[in-house]
From TrEMBL:
<keyword id="KW-0539">Nucleus</keyword>
<keyword id="KW-0489">Methyltransferase</keyword>
<feature type="active site">
    <location>
        <position position="440"/>
    </location>
</feature>
<keyword id="KW-0238">DNA-binding</keyword>
<keyword id="KW-0677">Repeat</keyword>
<dbReference type="InterPro" id="IPR050390">
    <property type="entry name" value="C5-Methyltransferase"/>
</dbReference>
<dbReference type="GO" id="GO:0003886">
    <property type="term" value="F:DNA (cytosine-5-)-methyltransferase activity"/>
</dbReference>
<dbReference type="GO" id="GO:0003677">
    <property type="term" value="F:DNA binding"/>
</dbReference>
<dbReference type="InterPro" id="IPR029063">
    <property type="entry name" value="SAM-dependent_MTases_sf"/>
</dbReference>
<feature type="region of interest" description="Disordered">
    <location>
        <begin position="81"/>
        <end position="103"/>
    </location>
</feature>
<dbReference type="GO" id="GO:0005634">
    <property type="term" value="C:nucleus"/>
</dbReference>
<dbReference type="InterPro" id="IPR001525">
    <property type="entry name" value="C5_MeTfrase"/>
</dbReference>
<dbReference type="Pfam" id="PF00145">
    <property type="entry name" value="DNA_methylase"/>
</dbReference>
<keyword id="KW-0949">S-adenosyl-L-methionine</keyword>
<protein>
    <recommendedName>
        <fullName>DNA (cytosine-5-)-methyltransferase</fullName>
        <ecNumber>2.1.1.37</ecNumber>
    </recommendedName>
</protein>
<comment type="similarity">
    <text>Belongs to the class I-like SAM-binding methyltransferase superfamily. C5-methyltransferase family.</text>
</comment>
<dbReference type="GO" id="GO:0032259">
    <property type="term" value="P:methylation"/>
</dbReference>
Length: 480
């Protein structure tokens, strides 16, 4: 049965490869030839619709074999007839950026459809075997309980180089984490709630191939309660509000209308309000993370308080004309630095001279700040982030902290192709860590409108994380 499945998978991959080879040839017909089967394999990996075999079968050698077979079969490949006529006038692009002609667009759409279809099939397979979230959500261990688990065996294809680290919301729709895990070499996700690291909850899943023994936390340990983190709220905190920690810090805050309504609901009572009023107020406070800043007065957290809770330096997101709304938004999407740093801490001994980092969906630089706070030098950072505001925040932090390395930034992960990666890898000898948390917009429970799962417009960028990581693995494998 296993053999049968493996054969079918091999056949499907061969067919897919054959098809993609045809497309590659078509793109380049009349233009220059590809260098050799290995470069072609790399080009293939660059195709958004290409999903390699997992297991030892996915080696470059095997892929190259497939290409040779596909090249031979190509002569009488009936599929070719189905392809639209190409625009002969267009330039050939073997090593440049992809041509932006109609045909290319057609193929991109077609590949995209294939990609979606594959993921859809997987999703249905996954429905029976949804990953369970652990309770307590402490992953493979937290600073207070580092002995929880100190060893795991990674599937062979998951082992680096490079090391990689992928993050997203833990409470995603059914099947999402199974799909993420399957794409990312069948690694079991590590689910962690940041409430074990700071005074605010943040339930996230992390798929990574890092060692898990000898982790250490960032020092000083951040305060773990609201009371310690925001001492000025102590004076006003009513005895009937039992909260000691905050809920997940979100991208938007409560309106002034709401806080005013709460004030009005409380002002009629000298002492403790009746239970139903308490319940109303507590529900709203929990939902919006409101804190007590005066008598009967609650307020949302200030951006600098959120920065502190998430482990960023004070005023990290301030300046450069950024609005408060955008600060909340960028912070709401970011890593909790202490949590991520705990996982990345193992890199300190492995790379005493520093690392080359590929940071996808960098946002406000949670990964970079974590590495810096761990004392891991960053030699070269390639950071890819679509928001100009966020790119400016990272650039400004880079300058403020007198980083010695190079920060190279790009805008869109979808534009990053194999040629670009090969150039970068050749220029500084490879990436040690590929890190990123792709957008969670279509996964998060707070999205009532378009919680479309991994195939949603934004969340589907996960597949670009996988595509880029797999390309880096392949290029670095070839260079070894
Ligand atoms: N881990 C980051 C935040 C990740 S949130 C941090 O610590 O701050 C996801 C990020 O992906 C957002 O900043 C969003 O602007 C960015 N993004 C969305 N689409 C993108 C694309 N096509 N290319 C690059 N970045 C993108």
């Amino acid at each position: 049965m296993v053999d049968l499945l493996a054969n079918r998978k091999r056949e499907q991959t061969a067919r897919g490869t054959n098809r993609l080879v045809s497309e590659l040839f078509d793109d380049r017909r009349g233009g220059s030839q590809l260098k050799d089967p290995t470069s072609m394999a790399i080009q293939l990996y660059d195709q958004p619709g290409f999903v390699p075999l997992k297991g030892p079968d996915s080696s470059l050698a095997e892929l190259t074999d497939f290409i040779c077979a596909a090249q031979m079969a190509r002569a009488d490949d009936a599929h070719l007839g189905e392809l639209p006529h190409e625009d002969e006038s267009g330039p050939s692009h073997v090593h440049g950026d992809p041509p932006k002609d109609k045909k290319r667009k057609f193929f991109e759409d077609e590949r995209w459809e294939r990609k979606k279809h594959r993921a859809y099939e997987k999703k249905h397979m996954d429905d029976d075997e949804t990953i369970r979230l652990p309770n307590p959500m402490i992953g493979f261990g937290i600073p207070d309980e580092p002995w929880h688990m100190s060893h795991r065996t990674l599937p062979e294809p998951a082992i680096g180089p490079p090391y990689f680290y992928y993050e997203n919301v833990a409470l995603a729709p059914k099947g999402v984490w199974n799909t993420i895990s399957r794409f990312l070499y069948d690694i079991e996700p590590e689910f962690v709630d940041s409430k074990y690291f700071c005074a605010a909850a943040r339930k996230r899943g992390y798929v990574h191939n890092l060692p898990i023994h000898n982790r250490f936390p960032l020092m000083p340990l951040p305060p773990s309660t609201i009371n310690e983190s925001l001492p000025l709220t102590r004076k006003w905190w009513p005895s009937w509000d039992p909260r000691t920690q905050l809920n997940c810090l979100q991208t938007c805050i409560a309106s002034a209308k709401l806080t005013e309504r709460i004030r009005k609901a409380l002002e009629d009572w000298d002492d403790e309000p009746p239970l139903h009023v308490q319940k109303y107020v507590l529900d709203e406070c929990r939902k919006w993370n409101l804190v007590w800043v005066g008598r009967n007065k609650v307020a949302p957290l200030e951006p600098d308080e959120i920065e502190m809770l998430l482990g960023f330096p004070k005023n990290h997101t301030r300046g450069g004309g950024i609005s408060r709304t955008d600060r909340y938004k960028a912070l709401g999407n970011s890593f909790q630095v202490d949590t991520v740093a705990y996982h990345l801490s193992v890199l300190k001994d492995i790379f005493p001279g520093g690392i080359n980092l590929l940071s996808l969906f960098s946002g406000i630089g949670g990964a970079e700040v974590a590495l810096h706070r761990l004392g891991i030098p960053m030699k070269n950072v390639v950071s890819i982030e679509i928001s100009e505001t966020s790119r400016n925040i990272v650039r400004s932090w880079w300058e403020q902290t007198n980083q010695k390395g190079n920060l190279i930034d790009f805008t869109d992960v979808q534009q990053v192709n194999g040629d670009r990666l090969e150039q970068l890898i050749n220029s500084f000898g490879g990436f040690d860590l590929v890190i990123g948390g792709s957008p969670c917009n279509n996964l998060a429970g707070s999205n009532r409108v378009s919680r479309d799962g991994l195939e949603g417009k934004h969340s589907a960028l996960f597949y670009d994380y996988f595509r880029i990581l797999d390309l880096v693995k392949c290029i670095m494998g070839k260079n070894q």
